[in-house]
Each structure stands twice: as structure tokens, then as C-alpha cells.
Amino acid sequence: MPRDLRSQKNEATLTASPESQTHNEDLLATDQGGYNEFTIHHQDDTPVFGNTRSGKADGKDLSDLHPYVQTLSLTDVESCVALENATFPEHERCSREKFLYRFTACPELSLGLFSTTAPGELYANLPTYPFARAPDTASPTNKSTLVAQVVATKCATPTVTNEAMELPADWRSRAPASGNRGHREQGRTIAIHSLAVLPTFKGRGLGKLVMRSYMQRVEASGIASRIALLAHDHLVEYYEALGFRNLGKSETTFGGGGWNDMVYDIAEQQPGL
Fold this sequence. Notes:
Layout: E1 67-71, H1 77-87, H2 96-105, E2 111-117, E3 143-155, H3 162-165, E4 189-197, H4 206-221, E5 226-231, H5 236-241, E6 245-249, E7 260-265, H6 266-269
Parallel strand pairs: 4-5
Antiparallel strand pairs: 1-2, 2-3, 3-4, 5-7, 6-7
């Protein structure tokens, strides 16, 4: 049986890392500050994002951003929908039902980057803020706001296909999924469906941050031989810088098509996997 990403949480090292364009209560535990073992630590005391002087988050002054990553679950669906809607054109968005399906079938394959903040106006203008919740019972007045996400399933093909992007017709019945639609538990390819960062925070490196964290988790878990995604032409170099190979134009027609197949080969990074 494939190993769960969460079972490997002590093996992945978090370092500084967008979508293939598109109810579980087992969130990783956090401590009183809203952090867990995947909290993003910095090597010195220099503010990473500058000083926040205004009363609103503007993506430039982010010293009050306290980011950490944790597995997404059904409790995060509304935040994920809000983030998706703020990031992608309508024809490329993941639907609410797809979030429900993916967080039901394989929640351990999706990762969110959150920021824990004290009550106030700083993040009140963010589209995900209305759905923010307390990071833990010890800090009931704090808010844990979704800033970025990686949403994925597994597929049995080496690249992301139309079938991998679709919903099984009978997914709510809890019967074994038929055909090749949706998540395939025995597949060895992680199919990334959404890499999204709130527009407010784009250009600050958060996409690379969450993506590299995700890639490290997958590599440490041993559950897949590769990570695949779809990318438009203007994002090919971005993913190549992360180690993905461009296999050329994809046959996938989701969102109108025009994608490139991108693949990160874990087996090549870890001989013998």
C-alpha cells in the first residue's frame, strides 16, 4: 500500500518554491503559535518581507506574514475555491466539486501555505480571509489564512491527461472508481491540478516556496516516481528552473488546451526508487 505523505513528515526538509492550470479531520497538529514541524524558518533575524506600515496587506510589506504549510482537507474547501477564483480565469478553475472529490479521495496529496495572524484588519481584504479559522484550540482568536495551495491526485499515466482531470461519475457512492477518471491510488504519477498563490502575494517567491516544499514531501514519501503538471508557454521556464522537463505540447484539452506537458522525474533524482 502506498505510503502516506504525512507519515513521512519528519523526513522532508522545508526550503524556499504555480497550477497545472487548470471529510478528513486529520490536519497536521500545530503548536500554540500556529506552527508545526513544517513551519518556514529563516536563517537570520532579517525581516524577509520588509516592514508592514499600512493597515492592509499589499504584497510588498509582509513582515506580518507568518507562513507554514500543512495538508489540506475538506475543512479548507471554501478557502481553496476562493483562492482558485482569485487566481485563474473561469474556464481554467478547479470546481468546488472537484475540491470535494480530491480532498475526499486523497487529501494527503494536497498542501496549503497558510499565514497565522492575530485579529485585525491586515488580511481582511484577502478573498480567503472570510473562511480563515483558528489554527488550534490554544489560539482561538488567531486566524489561519490560506495564501497558496498545491492540489493533486495520482494517475496511472506518465503525464496529466483529460481523464486525470475529470471526476469519476460515481465518486460519491464510495464504490471503487471505475475507468481511468480521477485519482488512481496505485498510480505512480502525482498529477498537480492547481498551484495557486493569492494575487496580492505574487512575485514574492511563495509559489516556489510551497512547490519546493511539496516536491520534497513527495520525494521523501516514496509514493511516486514522478510529478506531472500542465503549463502554458510563459510558465515553462519557471517549472524548468524547479527541475521539470518540458515534453512538448500536451493532448489534454482541459480549459481549452494549449498546454505543455511538464514532468519532474523522482526516479532520476533518487536512483533505485
